[in-house]
Specification:
The chain is of the alpha/beta class. The protein has helices spanning 2-68, 112-121, 135-147, 161-164, 168-186, 208-217, 239-250, 267-282, and strands at 82-84, 99-105, 127-130, 151-154, 192-193, 221-222, 227-228, 255-261, 286-287, 300-302.
Length: 304
């Protein structure tokens, strides 16, 4: 009997151990599943949060590129009372000698001296559409542009799209500031203007006709461009690519106004400039500064 009882006890003990093991396994599986679920839930929320950050950053980049690329934006969705200028008469024909005007926007900057040195080395004259900078820092750069025989023009004082294009009053105030800065610093009473973003920009909340009419009223002429080097965009072109961008289009026109930039972050433009000048010379182009005799290149004009 004792032997039987011992056997039963052993069986009960074994069943208890097996039951405990099953419970441990089940608890372990459940715990693992719960931990996995928590981790997955956490990761899902992290992914959603990250996606929101990416979407927000993408939106900011899109806005930034809209403004940064505005200098190369030409579109047929113009504001009221302006029309797209047809420059068909400027299409090159066989035997034409290309007339090329190198224009530099946004200066003066830390790169102005280097650009002027290169132009001087090649005996080339260009056009600088300048903005308002600290005279103590950049006064000599404004003056050297003129002293070296280049054409100086206005590119607004602030280069602040929302402020500049807010109204006619804000535009006039800005115009007078950049005009007077150039006059007081260099002695040049310039009447040459380039709209930030070009006359075809889609940033202005006021019809561009308002600003164009004002320029006409003070005898000022605005110039756009028909060749963009690519240095205004957010894409980082190499110096060789900038040259190729220009040279691939120069052959299309009798008169080519080339958009370049004089800014502290445009080192590739400085690097590209010697090869660009050499390539233009090899192509038989005549490189000139903008003057009163230069064919006017505009994207839009006031409806007549």
């Amino acid at each position: 009997m004792d032997i039987v009882n011992d056997g039963l006890e052993k069986q009960r003990a074994k069943r208890k151990r097996v039951a405990r093991m099953k419970k441990m396994i089940i608890y372990t599986i459940i715990s693992f599943m719960l931990i996995t679920l928590c981790v997955m839930t956490f990761l899902i929320f992290e992914v959603i949060s990250l996606q929101k950050q990416i979407d927000s950053l993408s939106a900011k980049i899109a806005v930034s590129e809209t403004v940064e690329d505005a200098d190369e934006m030409v579109d047929d969705s113009f504001l009221d009372n302006v029309y797209l200028v047809d420059n068909m008469d400027n299409i090159a024909e066989e035997g034409d000698i290309p007339m090329v005007y190198l224009t530099f926007d946004d200066g003066p900057s830390e790169n102005t001296e280097a650009i002027l040195d290169i132009l001087d080395d090649y005996n080339v004259k260009a056009t600088f559409f300048v903005v308002g900078k600290d005279i103590d820092t950049y006064g000599d750069a404004y003056r050297r542009i003129v002293d070296d025989g280049h054409t100086i023009g206005m590119h607004s004082f602030s280069h602040n799209y929302s402020k500049l294009y807010q109204s006619e009053d804000s535009f006039v105030t800005d115009y007078n500031k950049i005009h007077d800065l150039i006059l007081d610093t260099t002695g040049v009473d310039t009447k040459l203007y380039r709209f930030p973003g070009g006359s075809s920009n889609k940033v202005s909340n006021t019809s561009m006709s308002v600003f164009i009419n004002y320029l006409d009223s003070v005898g000022a002429t605005y110039y756009d461009w028909n060749i963009a080097s690519g240095d205004a965009t957010s894409q980082a072109f190499t110096a060789d690519e900038l040259v190729d961008n220009v040279m691939s289009d120069v052959v299309k026109y009798k008169t080519s106004v080339v958009l370049l930039h004089d800014a502290s972050n445009k080192n590739a433009t400085v690097e590209a400039l010697p090869r660009l000048i050499e390539s233009l010379n090899e192509a038989g182009a005549v490189i000139l500064p903008i003057t009163d005799e230069t064919e006017i290149i505009q994207h839009v004009s006031v409806v007549q």
